[in-house]
Structure formats: C-alpha cells, structure tokens
Write the structure tokens for this entry.
Amino acid sequence: MRFLRRGITLWLCFVLLFFSCCRPVAVWADQNGPVVVLDAGHGGEDGGAVAADGTAESGINLEIIRKLAALMAFLGHEILLTREGEEAVYSPEASTLREKKVSDLQNRAAILNSREDAFLISIHQNSLPSHPKVHGAQVFYNAVSPAQRAGGIVQAALNQAVNGGNERPVTAIDSSIYLMKESHHPAILVECGFLSNREESHLLQEPTYQTRLAAAITAGYRQFLHDNREWSAYEG
C-alpha cells in the first residue's frame, strides 16, 4: 500500500505540473494500453443532477472530460470521446425525452464497443438532497476484468487528492446502469462529488478543482497500467 501511494503521488505531481505550465506542442509517446474512451455523462435536454444554484451536472462532466482528454492525449494515449459538446448523442429519429435518453445511451455503448481494445472512464456528479453534508468522490466499476483493480487504484488516487479525511471505497456498479452493463470492456464510473453539498458544489464548478480531479483520475489510471503491464500490453 505504501508503494501504491508513492506511485500515485509521483503521478499526481507530474500531472499537476503539466496543468500548471504551458502545454508543450510535442506529445510524449507512450502508446501502451487500450484506447481510453472518455464519457461525459448526460447532455442536451438531460442535464442530470442539478446544484442549488441551478448548475446542471452535464456541463461539469464535460469540463472534467476535456481536461482528462488533454492530459491523456499529452501522455500518448489514444482517446475517444462519446460527446465533445453540450449536446447528447441521440439519433435523429428520437423525439420524446425518454426516446432521446435511450438512444443516447445506446449510441454511447455502440461507440465504446466499436473498439476491440478500450477502457471506459465515465464522469458524473452525485446528489443526495436528503443528506446535504455527504460529500466526496467515489469510483464504481463494471463486471469486466480488470475494472475492479483499476477502479481501486483510481479511488486511492482520489482519496489522496480530494477526499482527505473522507476516504471512500471503490464499489461495484449497480447492474441497472446501462452503459456500464452493456460495455464489453473494463469500465469505471467516477462520481466526482455531490452537487447537493453546497461547498462541494462550488468546488466542482471551479476549473482548478476540476483539474485536480482530472489529475487524480489520470494518475490512478497510469498507476494501474504500470502495475498491470501484462494486461495493458495484451490489450494494446
């Protein structure tokens, strides 16, 4: 565990330095591992959870994904985004809100599963209005190995970077979550915080805090690849 924390700390230092400096033009070539599919949850008419000030989850998810994408690309990973803008990715024939949500999820799963080698990182925000003091980032994993191992290391990175004194456990995802259930590949879903907690809601909207989250997730994923080279080499 001490070695894991040390490795995560080194990666956190690196990625935070990356974001604090001007981004170089050159890309550090490190093509090990699968394509990283980055999913910003919700979008369009489906804003997801809503903070007390009216800020929708979907926009926060997208900002964190953009920071993740910039960092992952710099590190040499091939990346694929399920959505790049504010709109959802439902098909034109979908008309009702329900049809759009179903179509959107099906299209995201199709994007993910179109790749033979992939690892999904889906970004969301939590909300529990009945318990406004609850806060913290938590990672969920699907049933495809080695998602549990990856999720545990990413959770450790988040506990170290943003959950100090409020450490959370990595948890298996509920089987009702469509994208995670339909994924043919290892997948983790990161609930970055609680919009129902006033202080954390403000933090989640700050670019610097979004950067910390992106840095922690990236550091955890990189540490996972380092610790599981046989899997990343096989998949890649």
